[in-house]
Amino acid sequence: MDRIILHYDLNYFYANVEMLYHPETRDLPIAVGGDAEKRHGIILAKNPLAKSFGIKTGEALWQAKKKCPNLLIYPATTDKYSKFSKKVKRISMDYSDKIESFGIDEAWLDITHTAHLFGTPLHLAFILKERIKRELGVTISIGISYNKVFAKLASEYGGVDTITLINRKNKGELIDPLDVGKLLFIGRKTVIKLNTLNINTIGDLALASPQLLLKHFGKVGTAMYLYANGLDESDVISEDRVPKSVGNSSTTVNDMFTYQDIYLVLSVLSQSVATRLKKQNLKGRCLTLNIRTKDLVWSSFQTTLSEHTNLYSDIIKTAFALLQKHYRLETPLRSIGVSLNQLIKDASMQQLSLFEQKEKDRSFTLENTIDEIRNRFGYSTVDYAILKLNEKLTDFAPSTEQFVFPSGNKS
Fold first, then answer.
1. Best CATH choice for the domain 177-228 from the list 1.10.150.20, 3.60.15.10, 3.40.630.30, 3.40.50.300
2. Other C-beta atoms lying within 10 Å of the C-beta of residue 56
3. Considering only CA atoms, which of 11, 83, 78 is closest in space to residue 40?
4. CATH 2.60.34.10 holds for 1-175
5. What pLDDT sits at residue 28?
6. β-strand pairing of 282-293 with 99-101
7. Catalytic one of 59, 106, 156, 367
8. Mean pLDDT of the region 295-322
9. Is the pTM of this model over 0.90?
């Protein structure tokens, strides 16, 4: 028997929440944007009226104002959005105990064993959609399918405040003609490479040679082939499970022109990641570094550490070495992010030499002391001396100034 997976996506979420707090703007073009002075000056979300002026998620605020001079732009207030996100999740728990978040405004529900209690999967989805609209005042789009990848595609297919079912009978009609970039985890660079292989649609990808994809993309090519053919068997992972990754990113006040600039920003981010890992009693082994140049070109690099860690000293050393290996400063950087995945609970003993153990103990003691001082007296009360070399770049606390930038395929 096929699984029944539901995916919901809160429509123009940030803007929707702002309209609830500012009901007088319901018939006006509004958007939510970052702080221009801190270089977060892009559109994060917009309502349908703003969208009708051609305003796009991710474009600069000045470009949006040029298209629509009367556009109202509200600053992002993540506390409000988090509050609504949790309320939606609490309502969803009445229909399944298997819920997996995908960002602040999306989640999957496995309703395989609960849909029959509400008649049909479509009826359950309708009840959930209308209840969220009635109780919270926000709208959602819902997709239903037999795996997570197709369920997400289905939620994007119908538009605002809709329900779309993709099953084995209509999969060819609904999914195969879609641009291959619509498939989960396929970014712009991968689309360009697929297009050179004459793979333009999801249907093309489904019919492509698995050997060809493996040759050009490695294991990722195999995953793309499985996704396109509806063979995704990944489970909906409940929230009490170990998270997939812990990371932080920042768009800096000034572009980063030198390796020293980058090291300083990476240092702040690495401290934050280490602190968050320790608070959750986690360690990670695979480190990912994301960078964006001043020309808005994204790149991502990854490496695996010799052992799991939650130490700042390990994270900064590995991240900076990874950057120096893969990136030459031909173009200044505008933003950078670091994250750890392959996470485990920090409960297992690891065998180290006496010298290594002493070094780890010293680092752990130092970092824990810094964390405790910050928790008691504030983040800025203690820091590493090197960060004073450029306080304009390093004067931010990722845990309190975190922005989640939307992906390019958001509506």
1. 1.10.150.20
2. 16
3. 78
4. no
5. 96
6. unpaired
7. 106
8. 91
9. no
